[in-house]
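Sample 1 of the test manifest.
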Amino acid sequence: MENYNLTEPRYEAMNYRRCGRSGILLSEISLGFWHNFGGAADPEVCRAIVETAFDGGVTCFDLANNYGPPYGSAEEMFGRIFARSLRAHRDEILVTTKAGHDMWPGPYGEWGSRKSLFASIDQSLRRMGLDYVDIFYSHRPDPDTPLEETMQALVDIVRSGRALYAGISKYPPAMASRAYAYLREAHVPCLVYQGRYNLLDRSQEEEILPQAAAEGVGYVAFSPLAQGLLTDRYLGGIPADSRMRHSIFLDESVLTPELLARLRAWNEAAAAEGLTLAQYALRWILRRPEVSSVIVGASSVAQLKDSLKAVRAR
Ligand SMILES: NC(=O)c1ccc[n+]([C@@H]2O[C@H](COP(=O)([O-])OP(=O)(O)OC[C@H]3O[C@@H](n4cnc5c(N)ncnc54)[C@H](OP(=O)(O)O)[C@@H]3O)[C@@H](O)[C@H]2O)c1
């Protein structure tokens, strides 16, 4: 690799888990691009985070058409980093993207129509400079488009070679069940379900996790650190450079005295085990055998390095 020094034995620091009943192994930790990789991000910091992830054994890079802001800019940032640092390693990594949330103006820029999904995957491939993505997700359930249309679009996107596998995200259990059946019958079985699961949100434990396991579908957890709440970030106030200060997706009102008390208790439990709160929160998710990977966000190399230490030594 001519662009940076690979000092670590990359794959020894990471554990890999089988994604459902498939041939694919996922790194226990994936890197997510929802925040921190948009138009205002420092390209050098972004590149350092991605290279640190890759050198730490992370093989899964999770994007979506509208990650930014502005929409599409995280895929463009990834594309530039890929061209410079990862192209020679394309066969060692999984790049995932999604469509379904609002992306471009007009009636075809969101949701789950065949028109929208095909346009979106082609846009994503162009922005990232890729021939194909490894996993293409339906990002959210569409209450108005027939499920069959969305699923057939996923099947045809895979058959066309634009994606190797299909996934779904945030589908309620009944719709997930129909999606799994459709995709299985079409011989493009759903590889993975992506949902929110963390110490503060255990709603997936009752139905989604056991359902995915029974169906042979892998499960990946997003926002495993509850967007930073489950770290030391907010234990002493709200830092000026934090997501809570800069993003509409994490409101200060969530930081109640009750929540702070819970976070401090977990922080003490973590310290008793010699862990940071972030590592404790990630291990808590990885205790579940149904979970194939947790997708962390990171605004610095230091944060990512801290989170990577959640991986248990083999
Ligand atoms: N399918 C979906 O609908 C969906 C929805 C949401 C997310 N996702 C995926 O999941 C990924 C992760 O979501 P997320 O960004 O909410 O994840 P997260 O890991 O819960 O939160 C990431 C934030 O936590 C803080 N942080 C991370 N590691 C830390 C550490 N070790 N110590 C202290 N603070 C730390 C940083 O906050 P600061 O920025 O404040 O420093 C960072 O930006 C996304 O990028 C995306 O790929 C998917």
